[in-house]
Amino acid sequence: MTRIHGILNSWNDDRGFGFITPAGGGKRVFVHISAFTRDALRPEIGDILSFEPKKAADGRVQAVAVHGPRGTPRSRPYPALVGYLVIAAFVAVAFSLSTLWPISRWFVAIFVIMSVACFVAYAADKSAARAGRWRVPEVTLLLLGILGGWPGAVLAQQWLRHKTRKPSFLGPFWVTVVINTIAFALLSPLPLGDLVAGLLSR
After folding, report:
1. What residues of the chain score a pLDDT lower than 70?
2. CATH number where 31 lies
3. CA nearest 110: which of 190, 183, 192?
4. Crossing angle between the packed helical segments 192-200 and 80-100, to the nearest 10 degrees
């Protein structure tokens, strides 16, 4: 079958579909995320694509066997190192607090369990996005993060290359990180006065 080249001029990343304008002109062609080859990067408006046209059951022409940009992942809004440093700093501060005043094991357990749950939720959402299935609501991902799962979310964003190019999500996400960190400090059994005294005594 003859392949056609075109430009992706419309894309809904949450729902996983968009429209391609053929290079030779003509009506826009519907394309679903499941039609892309596995080695293609996540679609973005402006991508040059090649595809095979196929008439669907409703008579509408849609793109199949879509080849998109390959190779090096696209740039991310924040380097992976930033996320790793935030996690490292949080762990370092928590460890320092534990040397001055015992921190309940429940705190550690909550962060570990929620981080694993958050990582799994990100993985499920990415899998659903590629297959065109029902997505994990973003509010659920943010809720898991604010409840202590944000370290797992940071790892999932970088390792799975998911939710790293959407400012409307990343903004609220980092707000949840700040809120969770503040809540951890307030719920910590270490009084602020003891912390200051302990630091000054060193």
Report:
1. 1, 39-40, 70-80, 97-103, 130-132, 188-202
2. 2.40.50.140
3. 183
4. 90
